[in-house]
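Task: sequence design from structure.
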């Protein structure tokens, strides 16, 4: 990134006049996009007065700032095959400036300019955020926003999902109060970039509050992965509960049946409705358990509600 100019600032007693380079705001906003190999979270979270992790990186030599195809793929969030494809199909894709035929190197500014021109990357306009509706003790419901969220979903039902993000003191206190105690809280709707709206049946708790040197507060929530599923449609969300009846649904059942063998009971079903109050093995729809159950039933002949 090249400065677009400079100003001279007189620090008086602290060393006198210093030349401070000026950078274009767009270039600065693009940094996390065009340098995907930098651990930006560590940079943001570095306490004031500490050496920034950026200091450990090799300085960029103008004219010798090069990238491999793999890093270009990470910038554009596509597979390496897609980048190789662009290179073949577009005559104006920057030519290699070094490396080998197998591992060609490209000039980073030239590649960034090409990616921008073809809308493969964009200038981030705002910090991404996640919004969540938490239902705590006494069915109290509150909305929260996590800036620069990080959502890590476990691969199996025994694992733990985690969501962290920057929050305010007030929100962090309220979250802690809502999720305190043994049963924890539930999340009726969690919306974040890159995932469908999620819902968590319960046991949501605050596992960490981290104060960065610059005063930001980062909160981490966690819950058992088996309790996470797709959120029901509508702003209120909520878990789409599937119940697997201990006795298979009979001829009088009018509930919606799912691939997992579970049903979403309707009030008026004679077997599973409000009057019957059947004993069922509940799990969140489209969650890990739902998928596992559905996979275990491949080839089963039940009519399916899923496309
Ligand atoms: Zn039924
Ligand atoms: Zn299910």
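Answer:
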């Amino acid at each position: 990134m090249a400065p677009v100019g400079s100003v001279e600032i007189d620090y008086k007693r602290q060393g006198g006049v210093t030349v401070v380079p000026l950078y274009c705001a767009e270039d600065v906003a693009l940094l996390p996009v065009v340098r995907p190999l930098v651990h930006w979270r560590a940079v943001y979270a570095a306490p004031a007065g500490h050496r920034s992790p950026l200091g450990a990186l090799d300085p960029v030599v103008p004219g010798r700032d090069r990238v491999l195809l793999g890093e270009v793929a990470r910038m554009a969030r596509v597979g390496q095959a897609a980048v190789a494809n662009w290179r073949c199909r577009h005559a104006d894709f920057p030519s290699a400036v070094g490396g080998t035929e197998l591992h060609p190197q490209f000039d980073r500014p030239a590649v960034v300019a090409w990616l921008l021109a073809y809308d493969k990357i964009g200038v981030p306009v705002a910090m991404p955020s996640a919004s969540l509706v938490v239902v705590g003790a006494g069915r109290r419901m509150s909305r929260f926003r996590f800036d620069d969220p990080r959502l890590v979903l476990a691969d199996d039902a025994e694992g733990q999902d985690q969501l962290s993000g920057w929050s305010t003191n007030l929100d962090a206190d309220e979250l802690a109060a809502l999720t305190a105690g043994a049963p924890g809280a539930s999340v009726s709707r969690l919306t974040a970039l890159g995932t469908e709206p999620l819902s968590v049946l319960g046991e949501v708790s605050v596992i960490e509050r981290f104060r960065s040197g610059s005063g930001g507060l980062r909160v981490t929530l966690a819950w058992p992965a088996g309790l996470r599923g797709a959120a029901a449609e509508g702003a209120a969300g909520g878990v789409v509960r599937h119940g697997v009846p201990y006795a298979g649904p009979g001829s009088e059942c009018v509930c919606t049946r799912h691939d997992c063998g579970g049903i979403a009971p309707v009030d008026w079903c004679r077997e599973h409705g409000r009057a019957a109050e059947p004993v069922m093995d509940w799990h969140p729809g489209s969650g890990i358990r739902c998928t596992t159950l559905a996979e275990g039933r491949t080839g089963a002949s039940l009519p399916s509600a899923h496309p």
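The helical segments are 25-34, 40-45, 69-76, 80-89, 108-117, 169-179, 288-296.
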